[in-house]
Amino acid sequence: MIDETVEEISEMQTHSSSVVAVKAAQALRDLTDREYPTVEDYLRSLDRNSSALRRANPSHASLHTTQHRIVNTVSDAEPDDVATAKELTDEAIDDVIDSVESSKDRAAARAVSEIADDDVLLTHDFSSTVLAAIDDAIEAGHSFEVYVTESRPRFLGRKMTRHLSERDEIDVTLIVDSAAGHFMSQVDRVLVGMDCIVDDTLYNRIGTYPIATAAADNDVPVTVVGAAAFENENRSPSEVLREPAEGFQVANPAYDATPTHLLDTVVTDDGVHEY
Q1: Domain containing residue 11
Q2: What band does 114 get if pLDDT is binned at 50, 70 and 90?
């Protein structure tokens, strides 16, 4: 399961930051079904497999934070035997999953006050927290028209579009990334997720910065929703161009940096922050 999860994260089959963190945490349970001669052997295996999961996507802040939390919790407890180490691992995994899910739920619930005006929304990438916020607003009696960018080169927005199209209260339109500025005059609010905010910079899926810039030029508020050592990941050039690049290079960064002065509000599990 760990190898499969590493491949899934690496290939970005799982997109949302919180979903990645939960999947990676659950994958470590595989170790509790294996046999180890000593506690030291088990702890080395735990650290090695956790490192493999983290390396699968160096840009997911929540992935790194939760994996370190699990490994440190077990190691710092200095278990006397393998059975105890496995019990501590299970408990740490449960704690991490509960923390991630509850933080996402709180952030989504808080975001309802920002989007509950039956707005025309524009969103980018796939974010389970954004999806949860829209669902909470729907439960509160609201409906929305939503533009979703494709989020190239992995077309992550298509997954978001499919999820939103299943909701009767949503009228969803999939657009190419470069059309975000064209449709911005029809949008009431941009709603995106986040990987993390460091100092005065939002790190989110590549393409967020030009969307935020277009929104600022059209006086459209930008709301970021999520739970907040960032290392940007450079994806494989083959995602952009299948044939070999001859005489030129292909740059394919996974994330871009958006200055927070382009944002209106950031909604996390601990409150709504205005910029």
Answers
A1: 2-103
A2: very high
DSSP3 helix / strand / coil % (the chain, rounded to 5): 50, 15, 30
Domain CATH for 78: 1.20.120.420
CATH number of the CATH domain containing 217: 3.40.50.10470
Question: Over the stretch 43-55, which tens digit does the pLDDT of each residue have?
Answer: 999 999 999 999 9
248 exposed, middle or buried (CB, 10 Å; 0-12, 13-18, 19+)?
exposed
Q: Is 105 a catalytic residue?
A: no
Q: Which residue among the candidates 195, 199, 264, 269 is catalytic per the annotation?
A: 195
143 C-beta neighbours (distance < 10 Å), count? 12
CB 6 within 8 A of CB 56: yes
Q: Are 79 and 133 within one domain? A: no
Give the dihedral sign, CA 4/10/11/16.
Answer: positive
